[in-house]
Design a protein that fits this description.
Chain lengths: 443, 443
């Protein structure tokens, strides 16, 4: 029998609460956002099929649920780097991303003093905040990678938890076996995961086992204490179509499945990260395999990019792959910008990347029958039939851009109910007139 | 037994030639482009599953084949309109489109004296040229739509054939039954086909049957004489997700199936046009139904757009739908630009629309196993592993754009083998160093 949360917290994590029959205020918020009964949310949080990443110290968070039966969520990567050190510009990107509808921000800062920016995010930003502690380790200690100890890495995970981070990407799935596999040279692109490559390099230089794999239990204790959701990183995700769904990738996935079960035993919430560069015809199989091997844990995909030859347009290659992935069970899409593979995204790239991801997520939600997903489309269709442009702007994903395109090339004469694409040849106008019994004037 | 074409032409159309066992020079060109035996091309042209649109009078044409077992082709819509009367700008768009890889140009001119521009295209442009004669009828005669006779429409089809047009969109599939169906008010967006709406209006105003349906046999004689491929227009394509795959759309498709067979009896080549706005989960079914009902005639899709709420980004919604459609059997994608639903596309929009369509076509070709489709991707992956940027530009769909993005935000320090996205955190750099036994310098 469920009890609604009152004052005293008698649980560590959302998963533990759900298993104890407690309905938390975060579950209630998620239920409202998703138009689902709260018992539905609670049940799947208990089973691990929905996560609600919400560090207890991120008090300004507007919680969101991630799971394949919920609306597909999107993440936007940002952060300070050597080549973009301006905190104000990064904060502008964050606020723009939240305004455009990103439910999560990953702070991938890799330069300077990272803690103040991270704390600013968890104190001011209502979106879920994620990090990749291994990036931060080198920066935090300001020491060469090879000199860091396993404990140093774990301490950074604790620091991020204390800073209020909601989810952390940990590349726990690679180990010394992976090094052997990569050294066989069967892969075209080896590893393309930034975090994975750092751990690979550290293992190569020190001869030690992956600390995130070896000390996984300690990490679980930290995550349990603060309710940090683990995003199990896919160090072996394919970096090109030729490497997709290979032994290396699936081998890591098998380990991620085991690590998922170990986390669940301690009531720690888990997502699993996925590919990567994948040909379209392999995407559905990838989603299905993740669901079986990782027991329905939410799948967080990085793309997938469906071709390697479109740098400058990888927001489009990722939108194709992301839409297919989400339709087939992925719950969470990491945005990809036009600058992917080429440069740090600027403010415009961030916006374009978010809109492309939102399109993919929304199209998938319609396809998989998420309740009310098509309502906005139906309103848009009604507005279009009426050629009511002010009404159309209300239902646009990005009304500013749409308005600007129409305004920049408005029709020359005064039939302002149409646009310059067709002018008096507008099909909607012709049919409306024909149905009203009016004559059609085209010339 | 096949005979290779020598000097004398003893056939009317490519289909007739193929059926007579003649291998034309157009089939040979297509075989070379596709890396397929010419007998393979001939066989499917004879069966109607491949079309080679090539009007005998379009002598500068570089022929291309369209069929689901060949590389997916793309079309770019252009033309003079009341709101864009500049012939030079339109010709610039044409040459840019061909340079970017569009295999077909549809001239949708709807203003002024259309014949010179059309003839310029068939005399100078190596891409397939398509038109929609019903648009031109009003313009050509400079008379109100309601005053045109059935013969007037057919005469415009003949004029376009004489002008060297390779394929014509004819909305033969709607008839007086369709008017009744639309008047029941079951559809949200009624008809959104420009040509379809003109015929609908003409039928409403005159009380007559659709001339393209009533005089289909005369049209077939014209098309047979010049080898004009008929693109059977889908007047009833859905204009919003809510109308997708409905009775109206599938009813028209059934008539298009009958019209396909009638054309084939006269050796006239046929493509079938398809939707439109379609939720992702209905696309594969649409492709399958077209194949069965229209006996494998190549499917030419307009999108499909997978959501209605992204004006300003419909090149992306169409790339998602087009990629899925092509993977499931569509052969030919009509490009969609960011200006769709809003304004006439400008030169930049045309480029963006073509690249987005090329991405969709290429991703689908890889997914359906078109021979050598992935070669370019594999070369790109090799160049990326080597961090060889000059080599990478060679394999980009749009090297200029990619180069410009990297150059605009180059890494600050001198490790120019990476880009500013990751700088010294570049995974490829780290792994290359680790595999070479080198120390990793991140700070």
């Amino acid at each position: 029998m469920s009890t609604t949360e009152t004052t005293s917290k008698t649980y560590h994590t959302q998963m533990e609460a759900a298993r104890l029959g407690i309905i938390t205020k975060e579950m209630q918020t998620v239920a409202e956002i998703e138009h689902r009964p709260v018992e539905f949310i609670q049940r799947y949080v208990a089973e691990g099929k929905i996560v609600i990443p919400c560090n207890k110290l991120h008090t300004c968070l507007k919680p969101n649920g991630i799971g394949s039966m919920l609306k597909t969520k999107i993440n936007c990567n940002l952060g300070i780097s050597r080549d973009c050190k301006d905190y104000d510009i990064e904060m502008q990107k964050v606020m723009s991303a939240v305004h455009l509808g990103a439910e999560a921000i990953m702070d991938l800062s890799s330069h300077g003093n990272t803690e103040p920016f991270r704390k600013k995010l968890t104190h001011e930003c209502p979106a879920m905040i994620g990090t990749v502690p291994v990036y931060d380790a080198v920066i935090h200690y300001q020491r060469d990678l090879s000199t860091l100890s396993a404990k140093d890495f774990i301490d950074v995970v604790r620091l991020h938890a204390e800073n209020g981070v909601d989810f952390v990407t940990l590349h726990c799935g690679i180990n010394r076996e992976t090094i052997k596999e990569i050294r066989t040279g069967k892969r075209k692109m080896n590893l393309v995961s930034r975090g994975g490559s750092l751990i690979f390099a550290w293992m190569s230089m020190t001869g030690n086992e992956n600390p995130f794999y070896e000390y996984y239990d300690e990490i679980l204790d930290i995550c349990r204490e603060y309710d940090v959701t683990i995003s199990l990183g896919d160090a072996c995700r394919p970096g090109c179509l030729a490497d997709a769904t290979d032994q290396c990738q699936i081998g890591e996935l098998l380990r991620l499945g085991e690590l998922t079960e170990r986390a669940w035993k301690k009531d720690v919430q888990v997502m699993v990260e996925g590919p990567g560069h994948v040909p379209m015809d392999q995407i559905a199989a990838n989603m299905k395999i993740e669901q079986t091997i990782c027991h329905g844990a939410p799948f967080y995909v990085l793309g997938p990019l469906v071709t390697d030859i479109a740098p400058g347009y990888d927001h489009i290659t990722a939108a194709i792959g992301g839409a297919i992935a989400a339709m087939n069970g992925a719950s969470f899409l990491c945005y990809v910008t036009p600058a992917e593979h080429l440069a740090l995204p600027n403010l415009e790239d961030v916006k374009t990347g978010i809109i492309a991801s939102k399109i993919a997520a929304h199209a998938a939600d319609i396809a998989k029958g998420i309740p009310d997903a098509r309502t906005q489309d139906d309103c848009m269709a009604d507005a279009r039939r009426k050629l009511d442009w002010d009404e159309q702007w209300k239902y646009c994903l990005d009304p500013e851009t749409a308005k600007a395109i129409r305004a920049s090339r408005a029709p020359e004469d005064d039939h302002s109910d149409t646009c310059s694409m067709c002018g008096k040849f507008c099909a909607v106008r012709s049919i409306n007139k024909a149905l009203a019994g009016e004559m059609i004037d085209i010339l």
